[in-house]
Amino acid sequence: MPDRIRMGLVGGGPGSFIGPVHRIAAELDGEIALVAGAFSRDAQRSAEAGRGYGIAPERAYPSIEAMLDAEAARADGIQFVTIATPNFHHLPAACAAMRAGIAVMSDKPMTATLDQARELAAVLAANPVPYGLTYTYSGYPLVREMRERIATGAIGAVRKVVVEYNQGWLAGAGEGKQAEWRLDPARSGEGGCIADIGVHAFHLAEFVTGLRVSRINADLGTVVQGRALDDDCQMFLRFEGGARGLLSASQVMTGEGNDLAIRIYGETGALRWSQENPNRFEWLKGEGGMEVVRAGDPGLSAIAMRGIRLPGGHPEGLLEALANLYRDFARDMRGEGGSLVPGIEDGLRGMALVAAAVAASRAESGWVDLKV
To answer: Which domains does the chain have, with CATH numbers?
Structure first.
């Protein structure tokens, strides 16, 4: 695969949900190939995962350190790593890769704590390589279209932002494999729901509006008794420039699937989009009436059309959105520019949100500044 960018996967061992998702998305456009991996610290399980991914047996490693050492000696060695592990491993894995001169694409959140995020940023500054975060929803073409329309004044100055992320998979007391590490402070970090899906909602609000949150008033809670981390959160937002907002994220909303939705209200109109129906958004006109904008419609911006692979009316979803981030990351690695893949600043801001929300909620501090 001489003309494809070579990827190594950290995590994604047997039984993983997210590992195969990354592999499919990364390879969707034929620009990237998964060629190696440190899929598990158990050598046998890593080898098992390697067979499942179709990796050469000698390129399934028991650790990222072993992978970096061995791949550096190969003419066809990896050029970047994707980190798909629990949060506590993001910092050491990313730093090891960066110090070896290897680019990094990481699952969110950036790290387990804000201090770790600052440490990672310092290592990246000393070892500059492409770095990206999989805030996947920023890859949806119509999310990018909304961003373009807001930037060009389609709804006037933004006044109000409402973003919700509703899940119900943790509504019961039972905790399956996917929940186990997310509810463990030693592996997840100081935030539960806020770090798992709250940062997605936060990033979406900033990404679409182009505005930065400056202050928050947070209320995080643990609804299911016995949990050490929050499973439900809501907060008021104040954006630079005066816009106000609401953010709600919960994993205990019984019956909900993956209901991420955003509404942005401006001086002359509003936009509404839902992740569970991602191939359209509604444009409410200030003078009355509503226009439905669909993926593939004539007149979409070039940045939106670049992320669409099928004719209008043919659904595209999460895999394609993540693939758009990987395609952007490939542009970064080739030095082509024009990428919208979230980066180090987005990661730092997400971790600042987690730290501020957890501390302020515990102390019932009310309004606090969001400081990176």
So the answer is: 5-129 (3.40.50.720), 140-310+344-363 (3.30.360.10)
What burial class does residue 338 get, using C-beta atoms within 10 Å of its C-beta: 0-12 exposed, 13-18 middle, 19+ buried?
Answer: exposed
Q: What is the DSSP letter of 29?
A: T
pLDDT 10s digits, 62-100: 999 999 999 999 999 999 999 999 999 999 999 999 999
pLDDT in tens, 280-309: 999 999 989 999 999 999 999 999 999 999
**Alpha-helix residue ranges (DSSP H) falling in the chain:** 18-27, 43-53, 64-72, 90-99, 114-126, 141-151, 177-182, 185-188, 193, 199-209, 302-305, 318-334, 344-363
Q: Number of helices (H) and strands (E), helices first, in the chain? A: 13, 14
Cα four-point dihedral sign 146, 214, 246, 253: positive
Residue 66 one-letter amino acid: A
The one-letter amino acid code at 54 reads: G
pTM: 0.96
Q: What is the DSSP letter of 107?
A: P
Report DSSP state, residue 290: E
Collapsed DSSP state (helix, strand, coil) of residue 50: helix
Radius of gyration of the chain (CA): 20
AA letter at 52: G
**DSSP states of 300-348 as a string?**
--HHHHTT--S-TTS---HHHHHHHHHHHHHHHHHT--------HHHHH
Question: Which residues, listed in sequence order, are joined to residue 11 by a DSSP beta bridge?
Answer: 84
Burial class of residue 167 (count of CB atoms within 10 Å of its CB; 0-12, 13-18, 19+): buried
Cα separation, 93 vs 260, in Å, equals 29
